Amino acid sequence: MPRQIQGSQYDFSFGEVDTDLKRNDGHPARKGGLRQMSNARIHNSGVISNRPGRRALYPITNNGVRTERFTISAGNVFDIQFAAGRLKIIDNTGTTVGNFTLQGNGAALPWASAADIQSIIYTIFNLTITICFGNAMRPQVISWNGVSTWSVADYTELVIGNQKRTPFYRISPQGITLLPGAQTGSGVSLVASAPLFVAGHVGTYMRFVGRQMLITAVASSTNATVTIEEALPGSQAIGFVVDPRTVFSIGDVVLGSVSGSKGIVTDISGTGMTVQLLSQSASSTTFNRFGQPITQAFVATDTVVGPAGSLPANGPATIAVPKAVTIWDDEVMNNFRGYPASCFTDQFRVGFTNFPSVPGGIAWSSVNTPTDLYANDASSPDNAIFEIAPAKVQVYFVVPGPESNEFVFCDRGVYYIPISPTNPLKPGSVQFLLLSSDGAAQVQPRRAQEAILYVNAGRNSMMAVIATGTFLRPFHTKNLGDFHFHLFNNIQAIAAPSADGTFNERYAYVLNGDGSIAVGKYEAGSLQGNQPVIGWGPWSGAGIVSWIGAYQADVIFTSSYFGAGVVEILDDTQYLDCALAVNAAPAAFTPPGGKGPLWFIPGQSVFLMDQVTRPMGVYQVDANGFIVPQNNGGEDLTRAALVAGQPWSGMAEPFAPDAPSGADQRQRMEMRQFSKFAAYVLHSTGMRFVTLFSAKQTPTSPALGTIMQERRVPAYDIGNDATLPPFQRETVESYVPVGSSYDPRAAIIWDNPGPLMILEIAMELSS
User: What are phi and psi of 200, to 5 degrees?
Assistant: First the structure.
């Protein structure tokens, strides 16, 4: 058969793509993707190299499974760590400075298992951390005194006088009237026109025509006892010269032209009608015992104005007890209604959402007062805000995003709230503009440059909110995993660094439910096109990762090795995971008396590296944490640069190119074989070429992808000094894979810790 001279692949920007692309030669993801690409870092140029290692920061005690880093004030950086029933604050030396197992009310922290911890949401405002978890826990506030002391307290809404600054909304069924027995006082009766009250109402608030009442007892489903916290507006009989039914109807809201009073018509009889007063006049000079103005009554000189016309008043009566009306609402968050499961900070406000009683509700505190949630004054731009998202959605998260806007992630849609200097966030300004009717998962979204990364409702794909640069549709959503579906499953967490570290590339890190990690290389510009270019690939190792988090340029891993928990940081200078300088370990790894430097993994094994890139091989750790010498040439276990850790294996397998079109030679119909397989490498310290099984499958054949033959390129050539780091070669290495198949497969594997960069993979096939 004629030989087909194939081209080279030198762009790996799409990472590891789905194998169903293997026959689609012309697709950009097929041209720039690999069939397998594990533990590789994609560069801006499109080439790949061995991924960075992870340096051990401090050991984990008390079974911590989630660690994230935050700034509480300028120059003060801490870690927050969650374990089952526990929360810790840890300083930059690995020392625990705050350790909490109880809520502010003395109850145990409710995240009872490691599986619960993914649901914890927290936000930072000044020197406090507000924490939400599910709907049963009252939000908790962890506070720092600015010096050394951390404390925990229940989130408690501000109280001014007797007014509780909390959100209210009509949760109870519509159409039910309430009838208070008095305007002020305690032990006041409250009668509902239909079954309403249950025992859980005791201790909660209701608001009758804008004034608060505290329920102190429930006698039946229609009868309760309340304390009037704010003097209630009364009722008033208003007379007219003519029959008011020609102008007014029961339920009409009417206004007084002179007094400015406002009321709702509750009864009409003869030439008179009764109104329940709703609001006070600005001219009121009568105040109750709380210093609040009492509702101004209609006066004789008023013309009463309603929706269908007006009539001059004729002798309004004095204010009497309230009348039964349907204008009342419920306290949104309390022990009976439950608490928000999500919180956020933006525009100098602390916000809450995912209320069990109002799933679509979002509450913003007043400016610089995080415990003031009372949205009762739309005239003040600094006042609290309470809004409901459209379409009966459940709001999971609110995320401050590009250009000061806020983005709302719901179970059945994604919205954005436009905010600008001409339209600041204030009462009455909130609009919900639909970006996508596809929902999001309850996985906290993360900012990534000009995008927001989030997870689809099925938890099996990564999505992004992206700025378009257009006026009519400034944002839209995109799927970032169209060709990487196999890399995602039951996504738990996203980490997106917000600064450049030792390499000038940006990556997103995704933790799956099975503990695997998918890492995506992206550029802000590459996400803008119709087909976003983001290269995803799996990163794996010996450690079991339970959480990932990002802080500026740092990526923090909460991991365990041989059952020992360790907090790690991504480090481009390391070629091992859980990398620990054996003879210069961080203070947090100081061994107990009589123990060695690896005291936390006794009886296990480690890989040793010396002089940064010199691999020394696998060494055993004895029962006391000391490294067992092997007396190899150049071995010096006291060297300051000695690093112990855990290695990993990486792979790059290209798709075998299909023959180009041309004169019919049955190019795409016959079995083929590699006549040569070559790699152009830089900084190489060794690798393996392998042939992978891809022939016809039978009940007794090897599994697809089984290594059938290999050629190892060693770290050291004959005559090299193995006591020194291996020479980092810039060269071309080649290999002749064996066997023929319709889909021949060959790959490059790196399993020796050290640097390796692959610039190009060249393939020549015969058919």
Answer: -65, -15
Q: Interior CA angle at 171 toward 169 and 174, to 5°?
A: 105
Q: Specify the DSSP element, H or E, that contains 30.
A: helix 28-31
Q: Among 646, 678, 701, where does a domain finish?
A: 646
What phi and psi values does residue 460 have, to the nearest 5 degrees?
-130, 15
Residues 89, 627: Cα–Cα separation, whole Å: 32
CA distance between the termini of the chain = 6
Query: Tokens 């505190």 map to which residue?
Result: 365
CA gyration radius for the chain? 34
Whether 466 maps to a domain, the answer reads no
pLDDT tops 70 at residue 286: no
Quickly count: other Cβ atoms within 10 Å of residue 28's Cβ: 14
pLDDT at 318: 86
Same domain, yes or no: 43 and 11: yes
Q: How many domains does the chain have?
A: 3
Residue 3 is predicted with a pLDDT of 56
Per the CB < 8 A criterion, the answer to whether 110 and 154 are in contact is: no
* DSSP secondary structure letters along 691-723: EE--S---TTSPPTT-EEEEEEE-SS-TT--TT
* Per-chain mean pLDDT for the chain: 92
3-state SS class at 366 = strand
- pTM for the structure as a whole: 0.93
pLDDT of 663 > 70? The answer is no
The pLDDT score that the predictor gives to residue 549 is: 97
Say which residue the tokens 């209320």 belong to: 355
* Residue 327 clears pLDDT 90, i.e. is over it: yes
CA torsion, ordered 735, 765, 671, 660, to nearest 10 deg: 150
Instruction: Assign 529 a pLDDT band (cuts: 50, 70, 90).
Output: low
Phi/psi of residue 166, each to 5°? -130, 160
> Do 289 and 319 share a structural domain?
yes
Q: What is the pLDDT of residues 223-262, one digit of tens each?
A: 999 999 999 999 999 999 999 999 999 999 999 999 889 9
Give the phi and the psi of residue 146 in degrees, each rounded to 5: 85, -5
Using CA atoms, how far apart are residues 384 and 524, in angstroms rounded to an integer?
A: 35
Residue 214 sits in the same domain as residue 180? yes
Tokens representing 500 are: 């450049």
The C-alpha atoms of residue 452 and residue 157 are separated, in whole angstroms, by: 31
The amino acid that residue 128 corresponds to is: T
What is the C-alpha separation between 394 and 411, in angstroms, rounded?
A: 6
Task: Work out the number of other CB atoms within 10 angstroms of the CB of residue 766.
Answer: 17
Examine the domain organization and report whether 216 and 280 are in the same domain: yes
Strand order in the sheet with 605-610: 544-551, 554-561, 564-571, 53-59, 577-581, 643-646, 605-610, 614-620
List the structure tokens of 385. Answer: 């805000």
Domain that holds residue 707: 3-50+650-717+727-766
User: Shortest CA distance to 183 belongs to which of 315, 318, 281, 302?
Assistant: 318
